[in-house]
């Protein structure tokens, strides 16, 4: 069980005009003081991104139950949110630890006392390795990183020996695929990396790792076949390394972005049944807030899942209509600096006279394009009168968003409302990008 994170300092931070969207009356207050004052979303400035507390709690429960029912551990990717308060909620829901992507993120996480980390990357630079050596002096610190070449192992050895690491560093051999991301490209190459790691006095062979998400971008037969074939190679590699593993620590087999974790469970099932000692681990991270775009279309726990086992979108953008420059077009005050656009443009869902007012469905509308600080709200030719009537100047539009990983990085604080449509703010989530 991971130790609770050191979150008290987050409540002691003072709010100011430097915090995008925060109401003026909060300036000079600590976060704790502001939350105790009964804040309302209607006080916040647009544009803003909000989180839905009820949906987050549901998503945590759904993913925890799904993982447990398939015999999988969960180390969700913390780079999705870079929000220690949300990491704590994932740990409280039973996660083994948190995955991170860079040693800079590891350093941030350690400053909050996180003691169970998987780095889904290699560590090869002198500064990061020397820092890692200092952290390994904490006997409670569980850390594992990846390596995809003998050169990576040798780079780690040079610095860690010189730094006098107090214990060996757990390393998973990363297997990749042609056209994919990092990772040794074949099982044979991966075995050679593993042999080198197993022979080292500085690193310890700790399993097999990889990322299947770069091999598909939809649920077409071609994408699913590519992902399945890759995951089978992971299992094949794990079996090939059986005699190289020692008994000095944990062994992992890990995969699982937020798109194909059902295929991970399928591919691992037989091997898990025969090998209960290995930590068969998912790293899915986006599930905590899900989305209205990319993951809604591709996740196995959305459209095709049976209620109540579905993930729910727990984030939305809110922007204000600031211009009606021509028929069938309105301009909103939020754009690329505020909302994600790399995996699909925002999706108009609802409209209200202002924050805190009753929301109404917004139909026959779409976001046509986004600039740095504007979104183009377009209406179909059949309903040009919608602009100026259903979305008048000064009204606010609720937007479904696609891709959590490029939503959180745009915000220092995200207000959390009790539930979708609620005006009651129950928390401020602080990010560290």
Outline of the structure:
This is Amino acid deaminase. By secondary structure, the protein is an alpha/beta fold.
Q: What would your notes on this structure say?
A:
It comes from Cryobacterium algoritolerans. Residues 314-418 form the D-serine dehydratase-like domain. This is Amino acid deaminase. With 433 residues, this protein is α/β, with parallel strands linked by helices. It folds into 2 domains: 1-53 and 290-432, Lyase, Ornithine Decarboxylase, Chain A, domain 1 (Beta Barrel), CATH 2.40.37.20; 54-289, TIM Barrel (Alpha-Beta Barrel). 28% of the residues lie in helices and 21% in strands. It is built from 11 helices and 18 strands. Strands 1, 10, 11, 12, 13, 14, 15, 16, 17 and 18 form a 10-stranded mixed β-sheet that branches. It has an 8-stranded parallel β-sheet with strand order 2-9-8-7-6-5-4-3. α6 packs across α7. The chain is globular and about 70 Å long. The two termini are 26 Å apart. Residues 384-388 have low confidence and may be disordered.
Please report the number of helical segments: 11
- Fourth-tier CATH superfamily name of the largest domain: Alanine racemase
Give the DSSP E fraction (strand runs of 2 or more residues). 15-25%
Distance between the termini: 26 Å
Task: Domain count, please report it.
Answer: 2
Order of helices and strands: HHEHEHEHEHEHEHEHEHEHEEEEEEEEE
CATH topology of the largest domain: TIM Barrel
Radius of gyration of CA atoms, rounded to a whole number:
23 Å
- Counting helices, strands and paired strands, the structural category is alpha/beta
Largest sheet, in brief, is: 10 strands, mixed
Specify the helix fraction band: 25-40%
């Amino acid at each position: 069980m991971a130790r609770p994170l050191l979150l008290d300092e987050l409540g002691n931070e003072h709010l100011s005009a430097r915090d995008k969207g925060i109401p003026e009356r909060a300036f000079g207050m600590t976060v704790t003081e502001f939350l105790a004052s009964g804040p309302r979303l209607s006080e916040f400035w647009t544009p803003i991104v909000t989180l839905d507390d009820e949906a987050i709690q549901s998503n945590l429960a759904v993913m925890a139950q799904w993982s447990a029912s398939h015999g999988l551990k969960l180390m969700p990717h913390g780079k999705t949110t870079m929000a220690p308060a949300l990491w704590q909620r994932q740990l409280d829901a039973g996660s083994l630890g948190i995955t991170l992507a860079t040693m800079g993120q590891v350093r941030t996480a350690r400053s909050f006392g996180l003691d169970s980390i998987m780095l889904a990357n290699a560590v090869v630079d002198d500064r990061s390795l020397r820092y890692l050596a200092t952290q390994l002096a904490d006997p409670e610190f569980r850390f594992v990183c990846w390596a995809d070449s003998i050169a990576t192992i040798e780079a780690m050895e040079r610095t860690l020996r010189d730094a006098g690491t107090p214990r060996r560093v757990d390393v998973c051999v990363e297997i990749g695929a042609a056209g994919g991301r990092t990772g040794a490209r074949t099982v044979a190459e991966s075995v050679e990396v593993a042999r080198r790691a197993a022979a080292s006095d500085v690193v310890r062979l700790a399993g097999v790792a990889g990322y299947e998400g770069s091999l598909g971008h939809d649920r077409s037969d071609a994408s699913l076949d590519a992902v399945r074939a890759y995951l089978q190679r992971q299992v094949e590699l794990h079996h090939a390394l059986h005699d190289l593993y020692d008994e000095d620590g944990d062994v992992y087999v890990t995969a699982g972005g937020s798109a194909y974790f059902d295929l991970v469970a399928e591919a691992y099932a037989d091997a898990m049944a025969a090998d209960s000692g290995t930590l068969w681990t998912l790293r899915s991270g986006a599930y905590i807030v899900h989305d209205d775009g990319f993951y809604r279309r591709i996740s196995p726990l959305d459209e095709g899942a049976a209620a109540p086992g579905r993930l729910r979108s727990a984030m939305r953008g809110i922007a204000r209509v600031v211009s009606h420059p021509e028929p069938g077009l309105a301009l909103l005050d939020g754009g690329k600096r505020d909302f994600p656009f790399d995996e699909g443009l925002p999706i108009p869902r609802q409209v209200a006279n202002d924050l805190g007012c009753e929301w109404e469905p917004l139909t026959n509308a779409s976001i046509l394009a986004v600039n740095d600080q504007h979104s183009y709200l377009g209406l179909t030719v059949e309903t040009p009168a919608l602009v100026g009537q259903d979305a008048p100047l000064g009204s606010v539009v609720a937007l479904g968003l696609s891709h959590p990983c490029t939503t959180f990085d745009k915000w220092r604080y995200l207000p959390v409302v009790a539930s979708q449509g609620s005006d009651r703010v129950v928390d401020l989530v602080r990010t560290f990008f």
